[in-house]
Design brief:
The protein is mainly α. It contains 7 helices and no strands. Helix 1 runs antiparallel to helix 4 and helix 2 runs antiparallel to helix 3.
Length: about 170
């Protein structure tokens, strides 16, 4: 007869916690890179969804906003294509920040500060979205969508942070 000793063996429990932490950090890295690389093909993405935007009701706030963005991006790319270089750097910054999370992936306890940095950065999304969004004329509903990235990023990192603290106290 075999008994499950994983709960009584601290090494097994720590290995399980470490695996969970690494999976969550990998998910965060993946999502950060994914959100970044979507900044590269803004025009082509808008071109693809343009026909779907037209199917929205004419007075729909979402349709009006998307058509305004579509027109703005197309006019800008026609006259000033170098402006897209700014969104290229935005995408690159997401990738670079994601690389920083390799440290906690490798050694979560030693690099917990990177998780804390990410939590602070996630919270900083809120004032940026509301202040810059208002100044730039971004609709409130879109500011909330932007804030959702900060919220979900913070929550995921907070879970990781708590798991690392637990692992650290048991090590």
């Amino acid at each position: 007869m075999r008994f499950d000793t994983s709960h009584s063996d601290p090494k097994m429990k720590n290995a399980k916690q470490l695996k969970q932490i690494r999976i969550l950090i990998f998910v965060f890295i993946f999502l950060l890179i994914l959100s970044g690389i979507t900044a590269f093909p803004i025009k082509s993405q808008l071109d693809i969804i343009y026909k779907y935007i037209l199917s929205f009701k004419e007075d729909s706030v979402l349709r009006i906003w998307f058509l305004k963005v579509y027109e703005g991006v197309n006019k800008t790319y026609e006259k000033f294509p170098f402006i897209a270089y700014g969104t290229d750097w935005l995408a690159f910054a997401h990738i670079v920040i994601a690389v920083a999370f390799i440290g906690p992936y490798r050694d979560p306890i030693k690099n917990i500060w990177v998780i804390q940095f990410g939590m602070i950065a996630s919270l900083m999304v809120f004032p940026l979205a509301f202040i810059a969004g208002s100044i730039r004329g971004i609709p409130f509903f879109w500011q909330l969508i932007d804030c959702s990235f900060g919220l979900f990023g913070f929550l995921l990192l907070y879970i990781i942070f708590k798991k690392i603290q637990q692992l650290s106290s048991e090590a």
